[in-house]
Design a protein that fits this description.
Layout: E1 6-14, H1 17-29, E2 35-39, H2 45-59, E3 62-69, H3 75-84, E4 90-94, H4 98-106, H5 113-126
Parallel strand pairs: 1-2, 1-3, 3-4
Helix pairs in contact: 1-4, 4-5
């Protein structure tokens, strides 16, 4: 009996931001099934493109791959867009956040990359608030 198709996730970030963010999330929720590609300034773009393609192929478990990049319009995001053009089951979400990854640890991965991206985007947007909006959710100490 085969396992159900799952959506793979690849974080693509500048520097060592991705690994540190994943470690922080794991300290709260336990395991987090993602792969990470961290791009340093001056990295060979062709090598990064090949590595990203390989990581994505490994993460694709039948329901596609969701790339989560740290910044819209950045080199990491642009490399992901190149790959997505070749595979319609793959999707990109930018603006990587702690809230997204906490949600990722607890959500259903038996969905398409597009559905998973929408869910994480919604969570990230809900997690952004200004002080005057917080009165209803402050905890009493």
């Amino acid at each position: 009996m085969s396992s159900p198709p799952l959506c793979g996730v690849v974080l693509v970030t500048h520097g060592h931001y991705g690994t540190k963010l994943v470690a922080a999330v794991k300290s709260i929720v336990g395991e987090l099934d993602v792969s990470t590609l961290e791009m340093d300034l001056g990295a060979d773009i062709n090598q990064q493109r090949i590595l990203l393609s390989s990581i994505a192929a490994h993460q694709d478990r039948g329901a596609g791959v969701l790339f989560i990049a740290d910044i819209c319009g950045s080199t990491p995001a642009n490399l992901c867009l190149e790959l997505i053009q070749k595979n319609p089951k793959w999707e990109l979400l930018t603006g990587l956040s702690f809230a997204m990854l906490i949600k990722l640890a607890t959500c259903n991965r038996q969905v398409t990359s597009q559905v998973l991206a929408q869910e994480l985007q919604h969570t990230a947007r809900k997690s952004i608030a200004r002080s005057h909006e917080l009165s209803g959710c402050m905890m009493n100490s």
